[in-house]
Design goal:
The chain is about 40% helix and about 20% strand. The chain is α/β, with parallel strands linked by helices.
Length: about 500
């Protein structure tokens, strides 16, 4: 039997035949080429432990837990000794080193990758290793293989094959197509904001089927098809780190802190925390990703979050054509390869024409990058310029209006305006608060005139969406003017 040193050397020699690196967090990484995918594994992980045990088994070397632990430490030391620049890793989607392609790791055992060309607007399977060279993919435990897309000339007709599975109006459906292609075409490494997709509808409208099956199959197949929204921010950061698209199901409500956190996830932020085993070192974790929030209730209450959302309101399925889920899954699976090919093609063509698009400032929502993307999709699909952009802006306003419709302040202001002339109400903040208290209970309204002014200032867009226009100004004295939104506004 070989001694321990010789056994370790034999295994480490095999490990060294593959690429070794470190990441920005100074963790050792081991990479193997599978087809066209450079799959990267952290050296202190269960996956790399299995790699070491497999090598030991092939060489007929008995490997104890302590022996494997020593090998992991030695492997990481070897990675540092390479003295290479730190590398970044991606889950599911990445940008090529030359910046000309967006790459999608299908996650299959053959190592297939889809490439979307920003130059030619073509989507196809990668056939040259040079395209994916230098791009490192992670495959977290939840990541599942995706169906290989089929690319056809009449790809637009296959987009329409998706229509029967999503029971909503046409403007929302095509804006949803734009949303999905936007998420596909913009990997996290490009640091763009993502609109938050909100799926709502009554029982029987197919919300769970859409979230857990359709959107997963088209963007990011994962064993964690839907998640429960965590209470701790670091748990949310960890979930986002291990999936490309995070789907949170059956939401009812959440507090203002969670609302602000989700808004930060959409536009990209960091959580700073004390480093492990340290009293004075600070570590940070990125919170950024594409979110899908699903539920029956109107859980988007804060204006700042609503401004970052896009809502798909699903209608109940017609009982005469309602099908059991296994049948729906079977039919969708048959259509999926061509739908997926069409979605990738639309994404590639929109990427190629993206820089040439212009957007009317009146049609921009908070996520400006998405407004520009809508302009590009309109052009590719041959739609009238601005039609999807206007639908998106209207969609955001409707979310704001819905979120504040039952707010006590909104209700009191509406009642106030019912008894006013077209000129509305103009007074000091203290006089306005006194008037509002005659329509709503005092404990449901702001506690003071200064707080009322702050609320009105911060909620102007939401109130406007509910038909209430607020003007705060100063003449001889400071005033607040409340009027109805004009029909042309």
């Amino acid at each position: 039997m070989p001694n321990k040193e010789n056994s370790a050397l034999a295994i480490l020699t095999e490990v060294d035949k593959h690429e070794m690196n470190i990441n920005a967090q100074n963790k050792g990484l081991w990479t193997k080429l599978l087809g066209f995918v450079l799959i990267t594994i952290c050296m202190y992980s269960d996956k790399f432990e299995l790699v070491l045990r497999q090598i030991a088994r092939n060489k007929k070397i008995r490997a104890s837990a302590s022996f494997i632990s020593d090998l992991q430490a030695d492997s990481e030391s070897m990675a540092f000794e390479k003295n290479k620049p730190a590398i970044s890793t991606s889950v599911r989607y990445a940008t090529s080193v030359d910046g000309n392609h967006v790459l999608c790791d299908l996650g299959d055992s053959e190592g297939n990758v889809v490439q979307l060309s920003k130059v030619t607007g073509e989507a196809k399977l990668v056939a040259d290793k040079a395209t994916t060279e230098g791009v490192y993919f992670l495959r977290p435990d939840g990541l599942l293989p995706m169906v290989k897309p089929v690319f056809e000339v009449n790809w637009k007709s296959h987009l329409k094959s998706l229509r029967p599975y999503i029971n909503t109006d046409d403007p929302t459906f095509y804006t949803l197509l734009a949303y999905m292609t936007y998420v596909i075409a913009h990997p996290k490494s490009e640091e763009v904001p993502y609109p938050i997709l909100v799926i709502q509808g009554p029982k029987g409208s197919g919300k769970s089927f859409f979230c857990n099956y359709i959107i997963r199959a088209l963007i990011d197949q994962n064993s964690n098809s839907s998640l429960r929204l965590p209470k701790k921010e670091m748990d949310l950061a960890l979930q986002l780190e291990h999936t490309y698209l995070a789907v949170y199901d059956n939401l009812r409500s959440f507090n203002k802190y969670t609302s602000d956190l989700l808004a930060q996830v959409a536009t990209r932020s960091y959580l700073a925390h004390r480093a492990h085993y340290s009293q004075d070192d600070l570590a940070s974790k990125l919170v950024h990703g594409a979110l899908v929030l699903n539920g029956i209730h109107d859980f988007i209450q804060e204006e700042d979050l609503a401004d970052r959302c896009f809502r798909v309101q699903l209608e109940p399925m017609d009982s005469s054509i309602l099908k059991r889920e296994p049948i729906l899954k079977k039919e969708f699976s048959e259509d999926l390869p061509r739908i997926k090919g069409a979605l990738f093609t639309l994404a590639a063509k929109a990427l190629a024409g993206h820089d040439e698009c212009e957007v009317n400032p009146n049609d921009r929502a908070r996520i400006v990058d998405f407004s520009y993307w809508l302009a590009s999709v309109e052009k590719v699909l041959g739609f009238k310029a601005g039609i999807l952009q206007k639908a998106y802006v209207k969609n955001v306003k409707n979310i704001m209006a819905t979120g504040m419709a039952d707010d006590s302040l909104t209700l009191a202001l509406k009642k106030l305006l019912e008894g006013c002339s077209e000129e509305g109400w103009k007074s000091s903040s203290s006089e306005l608060l006194e008037a509002l208290r005659s329509y709503e209970k005092s404990n449901n309204l702001p506690g003071s005139a200064s707080i009322l002014s702050q609320r009105l200032t911060s909620q102007m867009a939401g109130l406007n969406a509910n038909g209430i226009c607020i003007e705060i100004g100063r003449g001889k004295t400071r005033y607040i003017k409340v009027t109805k939104v004009s029909a042309t506004a």
